[in-house]
Design brief:
With about 350 residues, this protein is α+β, with helices and mostly antiparallel strands. The protein contains 10 helices and 16 strands. The protein has a 4-stranded antiparallel sheet with strand order 1-2-6-3, with helices on one face. It has a 4-stranded antiparallel sheet with strand order 7-8-14-9. A hairpin with a 6-residue loop joins β1 and β2. α1 packs antiparallel against α9, α5 crosses α9 and α7 packs antiparallel against α9. The two termini are about 25 Å apart. The structure holds ligand EPS. Ligand EPS binds next to α5.
Length: about 350
Amino acid sequence: MLRYLTAGESHGKCLIGILEGMPSGLKVDKGTINLELKRRQAGFGRGPRMAIESDTVAILSGLRKGITMGSPIALSIENKDASIDTLPVVTRPRPGHADLAGVIKYDRDDIRDILERASARETAMRVTIGAICKALLDEFGIRIGSHVVEIGGAADQKTMIKKAGKCAKIGETLGGICEITAAAVPIGLGSHVHYDRRLDTRIAGAMMSIQAIKGVEIGLGFAAARLTGSKVHDEIIFDRKNGFSRKTNNAGGLEGGITNGEPVVVRIAMKPIATLGKPLASVDIRTKQKIRAQVERHDVCAVHAASVVAEGVLAFEIASAMTEKFGGDSMKEMKRNFDGYIKQVKVF
Ligand code: EPS
């Protein structure tokens, strides 16, 4: 079983992560993690913070000479902007953010206590953890990739960039859709036997946990509801060399909560960033007077970043399912179990 925790505020000292359950004997390259962190910081529409930070990871435990030992891996990313104690009090909740519900639930009188942790800055640590999971998956030939499908309803890059530029000028923000794929995933990860062992359950939940994600589809997703069965389900074929496969992949690689050997395909919908340059109506939590919402430094669009984050999140869920199926103590044991299973599948 793989699990992780993160800690850290957007403008606190640093972001922290602990990844537990990685098998021993896996090579982890810090440079590769840092490249993933750089990818997360890129894309058009990002705010001024990205010019301040140059996210790099410090690996504090769990590795010796760059190789995992089976012990928990402790990670940190320093915040260059660590101004949390001097930042102004926030009393005007932003619609769309955790501000209002959070400040009431946790009984604070400064919304900053909420927004600092709710911020998507936390995703830098999830990308770090995802990068280590990608290293594990790489050992089994599994590859994760993603692309931005739409931004603000536009599907071509020129229009996306134009829209983002226009939104920046008028104090607006944009969301979008990303598609994340895992290729060469073996048949049989996850299980049909119980709700919480279904891999699609876990993937959907994990995707929804990414800040600002409001929808998740696997394969055809919502479009499948508008078609007849014969147009949706993927016909089965067999040949001696490749075994069983499908003519199409409308199921997005998952049937009954189990991977079916086709690529796992996930789409996520991100809402527009909640901080608007031209803020919406709100109410001051102290005076209860009508007022415009808080304007913080912000991104206009962070869909490219979400795409990279979602890769990391998918990598974790698939790596976790892999360790469950093939054992997670050492790479040697895991590979032996994997190879034996693949042989078994080939002669089925
Ligand atoms: C982010 C850092 C933040 C924002 C963004 C994500 O930096 P700051 O708040 O200092 O400008 O750019 O946060 C949000 C989208 C949010 O709603 O808080 C990052 O590192 O990704």
